[in-house]
Amino acid sequence: YGRFLSGLMKLRVSDEVVDSAPFLASLLALDSGDPRLKALDERAVALETRIGFGRLLKALSAAAKILVVLEDVHFLDEVDRSILEFVLENCVTENPIVFLLVSRPENEDGKPAEITVNPLYAFSETLELGEVEESASLDLAGLLLRCLDDSGVSGISPEAFRFIQDRSHGNPFF
What is the DSSP letter of 112? Predict the structure, then answer.
């Protein structure tokens, strides 16, 4: 948490943003030890986190246009998803902020991975990528495995490759 707080301070953010640091750190699974996180109920912590995230983005975007990339959005729990949706709809800034949200088509529970954005407040566009062809998937899997072991594709049994292909829908990074 100390490195996180130090990084915030280097950005020369307002005292309000620094005050929100424990709530922001909790988004990164960093334990700040701040007693407010235990004293407040879950809804209050979520609200403070929403406010803190908005403050941070406003501070950063005051100096320049920014791009926020969030990968594996499908893993967000309900509270974190609500924080993201709140910020997307309520972060009025001097310079534009572009959010690139990367997600699988469905969550772990099989439900669609969706972020709700009010079109009056933000523009959103979805780009869906199709499955990778089997030969390309085999090449990617081989490259990934070669990073671990020089045997590459030859080290993949046909059963293991079929499992990867079926489970990942052709994307071995999945």
Answer: B
pTM (predicted TM-score): 0.65
> SS3 for 103?
coil
Orientation of helix 42-63 relative to helix 78-90, angle to 10° = 40
In the structure, how many helices (H) and strands (E) does the chain have?
Answer: 8, 2
Give the number of other Cβ atoms within 10 Å of residue 41's Cβ: 8
| Side chain identity, residue 153 | V
Q: How far apart are CA 163 and CA 65, in angstroms?
A: 43
pLDDT tens digits for 135-153? 787 777 777 776 665 554 5
Span 31-53, pLDDT tens digits = 999 999 999 998 899 889 989 98
Cβ(153)–Cβ(141) under 8 Å?
yes
SS3 string, 44-97, reads: HHHHHHHHHHHHHHHHHHHHCCEEEEECCHHHCCHHHHHHHHHHHHHCCCCCCE
Measured between alpha carbons, how far is residue 152 from residues 135, 160, 174 in Å? 14, 13, 18
Residues ≥6 apart with Cβ < 8 Å to 163: none
Element containing residue 163 per DSSP (H, E)? helix 158-168
Measured distance CA(148)–CA(152) in Å, rounded? 8
